[in-house]
Structures are given as structure tokens and as C-alpha cells.
Amino acid sequence: MAFSLAVIVILGLLADYMFRKMKLPGLVGMLIVGILVGPYVLGIMRPEMMHVSADFRKIALIVILLRAGFELHRDTLFKVGRPALLMSAVPAIFEIIGVVLVAPKWLHISRLDAAILGSILGAVSPAVVVPLMIDFMDRGRGAKKGIPTLVLAASSIDDVFVIVIFTIFLGMYTQGKVNIAAKLAEVPISIILGIIAGAIPGYFLYKIFAKYDWRPPKRTLIVIGIAILLTWFEEEAKNFGIHFASLLGVMTIGFVILDKAEPIAHVISQKLKKLWVFAELLLFVLVGAQVNIHVAWKAGLAGAAVIGVGLIFRSVGTYLCVLGTDLNWKERLFCVVAYIPKATVQAAIGAVPLEAGVQSGEVILAIAVLSILLTAPLGAIGIMVLGERILDYGEKRAVYRFRELREKLGLPHVGERVRSKRFNTVWKVIEEKETWIRENGRLIPAIYLRFWREDPSKEPGKGRTMDYRYTPSSPPFETHWEILYDW
Asked: pLDDT digits over 34-67, tens only?
């Protein structure tokens, strides 16, 4: 397994670098690396790594969904509520209808088999979409109208809806009769229970972090541990007939902490951002390794045509969802393209019909794999290209200008401890203030940080303090300081 991890890290980073140099999403390069080193092409990936691939992919997905939760502001989320709710179901329904209309004739399969295929193809990939949306949010692209938040929130619920629909169709095939109304009722119930399951630990974590002065790495690891435990609990709850969307709960943990204590949330988010570098490599290389290109080849042109028709229907559904909003036609087009990539769900459940004895199981698996090969790279490229051209920065939004300044200078947040390189003294950041100052006749962002000389005998804020002002022309923080990441 150690060799496989080395392959993932070295080749994944190399591919990421090369594709970014070509102005393409790095994740496309990682997917290609996964396909090449996987068991179906060169076979470099060790079998033991493939056996634990699902667990690694889930942990990596948890990390990115936690980051997504820590970026979801209440006001922005409420603003995009209605279109996000529509986009969580309508595009998938349209795609399923499109596949059912053409697949029986083109692929020579039954209507029910076509419905099963459509429900597999109907899911958008959060693994592809969420990182790209977070990148736009980090840079303030589309922030004025909350477009990345809209796509991010909708894509997270979309999978819940599609998997329930898939379960209904598969049950109709294997069991003959299924209580469709009861199954459909699982969708809102699963969403509500998932939100509750994430809100409860999120609130308790906020209270604990507010009371105890734990270091940022410790807080981050605890949040990740709770999130992983939440997904385990979902599997255990299924044994008792209880279904809830644990991945939605994972996002809710971050959302609650952000809503209750934004400074704490920002610190944890920054640590997750650093951890995501490794998690991203694991996720996309291992997703690529699951792709059997020999199976995809069997789908042929007919399979590609079915996928294409499904995407056309899906695009119409997505466009209808954003009608009546304040988005212009270009921004609506971006939402349509952002809802194209497929990978995570298709890799996870593409083989289930074959294992369940569905007559067209091999065809369904082949087209599911082909959909990953066609839509994940093209969708990711389309999102990045259109996003850079269509999503504007809106008005001068301080939150993103200050975020850029923090990242450029590597500034700490409230609660973090720092060491003076010159005097070897330890200080703690106890206050930060964002403001605009005038320099050379124009307004620029500035961040004031107040430091307290750490003294166990005195309360924070009492004793010796000092403050500094940082602007875009200031030297990097690490020039004179070191941020201490001990426990």
C-alpha cells in the first residue's frame, strides 16, 4: 500500500501541475493518472489499495464537504434556497425521462432497465463540482448572486434524491412491487434527519471550542473524526430501517460552527484547505482507478448517444430551475454546465444492477463508466473556463478582498499562537479588525491584528499587548513570525 500511496502522490501532483500549466483543472489530470495506473490499464496500483479505495474516497469526500460547510453563509444560502431545492431534483428527473425515451430502442433494453440506467446517470458528482465551486467562492467569483453556493448546495442534495429513485427502480425489478410513495417520502425525511444529525454535533463542537482553548489542528482533527463517525452511523442506522443523508450532515457541521463562531470556523477551514491537497489526490486518482475503460468501450456510440440525450434533457431541466431568478442567460448557462460532471455516484453504484441480476446489467455498467470518462473531464473544464469568463467579482466585496490579503501574507486568525523570530517570544492573536485605508489616493484593504504576550498568570487581553497593521504591500507574516501549530 505504501508504494501505491507514493504513486498517487507523485504522479497525481505531477499531473495536477501539468494540467494547471495548460489552464485546465488539475483534477482532470488526476483522473487520467488513476485510469492509467489502475488495475484495468497498467496495473501499477496494488490490489490492497483497491480494497480500501472506497474508504479512502469517502474520507476525502468528507474533507471537501466539511470545507463546503464552512463556506456556506446563512444569508447566501437562504438567498438561493428555492432554485437550489429545484435543482436538487428537477434536472435528474428530466435526465431519467430522456434516457427512458431513447435507451430501449438504441440499446435494446426494457423500459425498466432504462429507468435504472437513467437513475444512475442522473446524479451529479459532488467530488468534481464542490472543489471547483469552493475555489470560486474563495476568490469571490459569482459571490454577488451566490451562484457557486447555489450549485454547491443543490449538488449535495441531488445525490440523495437520485439514490432513492435508483432504489425504487431496482426494487421494482428485483422485488416486483415497491411502495413508491413510501420510498419517495424517504427523500425529505433523509434530508431532514441528515441536517439534524449534523446540527447536533456541530452545535456541541461549537460550545466545546468556545469554552476550551484547543489548538487549531486539534479542533480540525476532532471535526473530521466526528464527520467520519457520522457516516459510519448512517450505515448502522440502515439496519434499523432509518435512512439519513450523512454527507449532508457533514456539511451541516461546518455550517453550524460558521454560523455560531465565524473566527473559529475560518481557522478550521484553513487547516482543512491544507489537508485537502492530499485528500484531493486520493479522491480523484482512486476514482479514476475504478474506471474500467474496456467495459466503457463496449458501450460504443449508442451508449455515448444515450448519455448525450440524457444531458440535453438534464440541461433543459437545470435551465428551467433558474428561470425567475436574477441570473442573466450567461450565468444560467454556467449552472447548466456545472451540473454535467458525473463520477462519484456512477463509480459507486454502476455495478449494483449487474450484481442484483438485472438482465442489462453489463450494458448499464458500461454506460455508467463511459459517462465518467466523457462528463467528468469535459464538465470540469467547462466549469473552469465558463466560470472565469462569466462569474464576475460583483461589487467590491470586503470579505473576499480580506481573504485574499490573509492568504497572500499568511496571516493568523484569532486564537492562534505565534512566535517572534527576532525575540523568541510567544504571543496569541486576540483581536482582528478589517478596514479600508487610503493609500496613494485609492482605498485598499488592511487587517489589524492585536497580540497578547502569553502569560499563564494573566487572562487573555490583560497584560502586555501590541498590534500591527497589514496591507498588500506588507512583507509576508512568516518573515518575522512563526505560527505555532502545536496541540
From this structure: 889 988 888 888 888 888 888 888 888 888 888 8
Q: Which three cell numbers stand for residue 221?
A: 482533527
How many Å apart are CA 422 and CA 28, to the nearest integer? 44
Task: Enter the C-alpha cell of residue 482.
Answer: 512563526
DSSP state of 476: P
- Domain extents for the chain? 2-395, 399-484
Which of the listed CATH numbers 2.60.370.10, 2.10.10.90, 3.40.50.1010, 2.30.30.30 matches domain 399-484?
2.30.30.30
Question: pLDDT tens digits, residue range 336-393?
Answer: 999 999 887 787 778 788 878 888 888 888 898 888 888 988 998 999 999 888 887 6
In this structure, are residues 472 and 445 in contact, taking their beta carbons and an 8 Å threshold?
Answer: yes
Q: Which three three-digit cell numbers place residue 461?
A: 487581553
* CATH C-level class of 2-395: mainly alpha
Give me the residue label for grid cell 456541541.
204
Single-letter amino acid, residue 156: S
Which secondary-structure segment (H or E) carries 224?
A: helix 216-238
Going by their DSSP bridges, the two strands 426-439 and 442-453 should be labelled as antiparallel
* Cβ within 8 Å of residue 438, ≥6 positions away: 444
DSSP lists the bridge partners of residue 232 as none
For residue 186, what is its C-alpha cell? 424517504
50-54, 332-336, 393-397, 463-467 — most confident range: 332-336
pTM: 0.75
DSSP structure string for 122-190:
T---HHHHHHHHHHHHHTTTTTTTTHHHHHHHHHHHHHHHHHHHHHHHHHHHHTS---HHHHHHHHHHH
Residue given cell 425567475 in the structure block: 324
The identity of residue 13, as a single letter, is L
Amino acid at 188: P
| Cβ burial 141-166 (10 Å sphere, 16+ → b, else e) | bbbebbbbbbbbbbbbbbbbbbbbbb
> What are the backbone dihedrals phi and psi of residue 276, each rounded to the nearest 5 degrees, phi first?
-65, -25
CATH topology match: 2-395 vs 399-484: no
- Residue 459: per-residue pLDDT: 61
pLDDT at residue 334 in the model: 93
Strand, helix or coil at 423?
coil
Phi, psi values for residue 463, rounded to 5° = 110, -155
| Radius of gyration in angstroms for the set of CA atoms belonging to the chain, rounded to a whole number | 24
Pairing of strands 465-470, 442-453: antiparallel
Mean pLDDT of the 458-472 span: 77
Residue 475 banded pLDDT, cuts 50, 70, 90: very high
